[in-house]
Amino acid sequence: MRRKQRRFSTFSLSFLDIMSCGFGAVALIFLIIKHGSDHEIEVETEDLSAEVNLLQEEVEIGEEHLVLARNTLDIVSDELAEAQGLARRILEQIEEVKGNIAEVDSIDEKEDIKRLQDKLKKLEQAKKDLEEENKKLGNNVRKYSGDGDRQYLTGLRLGGNRILILLDASASMLGDELIKVIRARNMSSRVKRQTEKWRRAINTVSWLTAQLPPDSQYQIYTFNTSFRAAITGTEDRWLNVDDRDQLDKAIKQLDEIVPENGTSLERVFNAIHAMTPLPDNIILITDGLPTQGLKPPRSATVSGRERRNLFKRAVKVLPKNVPINIILTPMEGDPFAASEYWKLAMQTQGSFLAPSRDWP
C-alpha cells in the first residue's frame, strides 16, 4: 500500500528549530564583532592620549624657547634701530652731496665737483662699512672700541666652553721700565690705577671678553703674591658669558685693583685645580717670570736663574691638556721671559703674543 506523502508546513517543529539556530548564530557573530570594535577603540584612545601628552610637552618647551627668542629679538631690535638711524643720516648726507653736485654746472668749478665726488665716495664707503657691521651685529658679546682703526690678526685661541683669564696685578705692571715702576710704587693708589701699562692690561681683558663665544662660561682671576676673582665671592665658580650685566661688572671691578707686591704663578696655577670642571682654555696676561713661589723669597732680590726655576715649578702644577695662551708685555731686566712663555704656549698647543703698545 503506497505511503501517504507528508505535507510541508512553515510552522512545523523542524523549521522553527532551524530558524532559531540561525538567529542564535547571527546574535553570536554580532557580539563578537561588537567586542572587537570596543577593544580597538580603547587601544586607539590610549595611543592618542600618549600623543597628546607628547605634543603638550613639545608646546611647553617651544614656549620657553619662544621667550628666550623674544628677549634676544628685543636686544637685536634696539641695536638694529640704532644702526638704521645711523644709516639714515648717512643716506641724507649722500643725498645732500648729490644735490650740491647737481647744482654745480660751471666748467670753472671742476675742482669743487671733484671734491664733492670724493666726499660722496667716502660717505658711500662709510655706509657700506656700517651695513657690514650691522650684519655682524650680535656676534660679539660686548662691544669694544679702541683708539685706532686698525684690525689685528692676533692668532689667539679664544674658543672653549670654560675660559679662564689670568691677569698679572703685581707691582711690575706699573711700568715697562724698572725706574718707572720704582717711581710709581711711591705714588697714590689713584695714580697707580691710571698708569699706562696697567690701563693697557685692563683694556686687553676688556677686548678679550668682547670676543668670547656667547654660549661659553668664563672666570677672571687677578694675581700677585695671592689671587682673587674680578667679582669678589665668585672664586672657583664659572660665570655665563651671555650675562652681559655681570660681565660688565667684572670689567668695572678691575678698575678698583691696585698693582702691588711680587708675582706667584705657582699659587694661581694651584688655584685652577679647585675649579669644577677644569677650564678648557687659559689666557695669561703677564709681563715676566715669577719672583716667588708659595712662600716669600728669603732675600730681597731674585736672580734670573731663580726666576726660571720658579717658573718651571709653577708649570708642573698646571692641568694637563689645557692650552695656555700668553699675552706678554715685556719688562726690562727679564730676558728669559719671552722664550720660556713661548715654549709653554707651544707645549700646550696654545699661542704666544707680545702686542704693540697701542693694542688692543
TrEMBL record:
It holds the Pfam family VWA_2. Keywords: Coiled coil, Membrane, Transmembrane, Transmembrane helix. Residues 80-147 form a coiled coil. This is VWA domain-containing protein. It comes from the Bacteria. It comes from Microbulbifer variabilis. Signal peptide: none annotated. Gene3D superfamilies: von Willebrand factor, type A domain. The chain crosses the membrane at residues 12-33. Residues 163-288, 306-335 form the VWFA domain.
